[in-house]
Write a structure and sequence with these properties.
503 residues; mainly alpha; Growth Hormone, Chain: A; 23 helices; 2 strands; 80% helix
Length: 503
């Protein structure tokens, strides 16, 4: 490879890296202001979960749709579309007046995030075709790197004082401007699939219509919730979309890929949904230490950043599936320990969790890229889209709902034990993706007596720990699945990357 080619690779990697950094700014800054939104707009925990979720699931709309057409429109156009979505979404958030304007702005920014990944993942797989897992992990080091930088800048504003949440949200424009400048004049290659002469139908067939239906069903269920459609209508629309896909693909998909789509969902919930909530969940315990809860997310992100840069060595030694099994076990242990940790023990528990989640995203994408190279952008981005859908539609909302449920049941028990009527005083009825539920009325809580506030704060703190304990079960499941896949590959002669043209 000549010097000019290496230089071109470097600039393209830098562009993709900066774009991924922009998506992580969107993520962490939203996580750090979610409690501010809750106070300013009187949101329940479930509603906060819905706003955290809509920052994730629309990602799958653009990442899947762009994957179908990216070989025609190109990486450059896709990234310019992402920049436009980021700028429009930021403007809507900056001028938000309530739940639905926050929802709309977050939705559009998430579309931009999906477009970024739709371009970045296949671009890096194309540029570094013979070392995909290593370079996809390095690319996704931009995610924790952006969270560190965005988190420090936001907390810096807090330390200076006099800035509201809108100034924190405005920080998102920094990495967006960086990657748009890097886009100017850049020449992008065609994808690995196109360069190898693999047909469009073959690419679609690798993923298959079963995977398409899974993703379409999740998207339409959330769209149905927003627009009050019945589940029958949502599933019907998903079936139609899958049939259209089947007409072109003529394949149900590779069984291993379908399994990877399904296992990517609990992996993504473990990492992304937990990270969306982690600052809020750890607030009570971190307050006891006199520290901002955001430091937990920044600390674990620093671990992820360093580990992803050097992940290639461990992956070569242990193979990607072994790494994912180990990572799942560590994440499960860390989350369970965090649910009961106090004081400095929080740091130790967070270390386990941080090391574990480091390997999830990039390594899982690496497995898909290595096992299904003919699937091109579609297999890579369907896998990422499935993860984001699960994290946004189910995971983030589930963690919010778990807190509301725990607080509600705690109030009922307190009323029964102390002959009080706090449930009637402070609970109000709401509607979510999980149906009707009762949650704390934040306006009433704000006007509660000191004695009632002490009870409510104690129950909310316990609810946050319960939520962490529940999500810790997910990486236990993924660990068992990866161990099963290791045994399956051993029966076939061991895990080996698939190279187009080799038999």
């Amino acid at each position: 490879m000549d010097m000019s080619t290496r230089k071109g690779q470097g600039w393209l990697f830098a562009t993709a890296f900066a774009a991924i950094t922009a998506t992580s700014f969107c993520f962490i800054l939203r996580a750090l202001v979610i409690d501010n939104w809750g106070v300013d707009f009187a949101l329940t925990e479930t509603q906060k979960g819905e706003l955290l979720g809509v920052g994730l699931w629309p990602f799958s709309i653009t990442i899947v749709l762009m994957s179908l057409f990216i070989d025609r429109i190109g990486f450059r156009v896709t990234l310019w579309f992402a920049a436009l979505c980021h700028i429009i979404g930021l403007g809507l958030l900056f001028t938000a007046t309530g739940y639905w304007s926050l929802y709309a702005g977050t939705f559009i920014m998430a579309l931009g995030n999906g477009a970024v990944e739709a371009a970045a993942n296949p671009l890096i797989a194309t540029l570094f075709a013979h070392d995909k897992s290593k370079w996809l992990n390095r690319l996704h080091a931009a995610w924790p790197g952006g969270m560190i930088l965005g988190g420090l800048l936001a907390m810096g504003l807090d330390s200076l004082g006099g800035f509201d949440w809108r100034m924190k949200v405005g920080l998102m424009i920094i990495p967006v401007l960086v990657y748009t400048v890097l886009l100017i004049g850049r020449k992008f290659p065609v994808s690995e699939r196109v360069a190898s002469g693999v047909s469009y139908r073959t690419m679609l067939g690798e993923a298959g219509f079963i995977s398409a239906f899974i993703l379409a069903a999740l998207i339409m269920l959330e769209v149905g919730r927003v627009f009050a459609l019945s589940p029958v209508v949502s599933f019907g629309a998903a079936a139609v979309l899958a049939l259209i896909y089947a007409f072109f693909a003529r394949s149900p998909g590779r069984p291993l890929f379908i399994l990877l789509v399904l296992v990517m969902m609990p992996l993504a919930v473990t990492e992304l949904s937990t990270d969306s909530w982690i600052s809020s969940l750890m607030t009570p315990e971190m307050n006891k230490l006199g520290l901002a809860a955001g430091w937990v997310l920044i600390y674990t992100s620093a671990l992820v950043f360093v580990i992803r840069i050097f992940a290639g060595t461990l992956i070569k030694w242990l193979n990607p599936l072994g790494v994912l099994a180990m990572a799942s076990a560590l994440a499960a242990a860390g989350l369970f320990l965090m649910s009961g940790a106090t004081g400095l023990a929080i740091l130790a528990a967070a270390t386990f969790y941080g090391i574990g989640k480091s390997f999830f995203w990039g390594t899982a994408l690496g497995v898909a890229s290595e096992q299904f190279p003919k699937g091109g952008a579609v297999t890579l981005n369907m896998l990422a889209g499935g993860g984001m859908l699960a994290a946004g539609i189910v995971g983030s909302v589930l963690l919010g709902a778990a807190q509301d449920n725990s607080t509600r049941e705690g109030l009922k028990l307190h009323d029964a034990t102390h002959q009080t009527m706090l449930s009637e005083q402070y609970l109000t009825e709401k509607v979510s993706v999980f149906g009707r539920y009762k949650a704390l009325d934040e306006a009433k809580v704000a006007g509660a007596s000191d004695a009632d506030k002490a009870v409510l704060d104690g129950l909310s703190g316990s609810a946050k720990k319960d939520a962490l304990k529940e999500v810790a079960l997910l990486p236990v499941i993924t660990c068992l699945i990866f161990l099963g896949l290791i045994l399956w590959f051993r029966r076939k002669g061991g895990y080996k990357p698939v190279v187009i043209g080799e038999h």
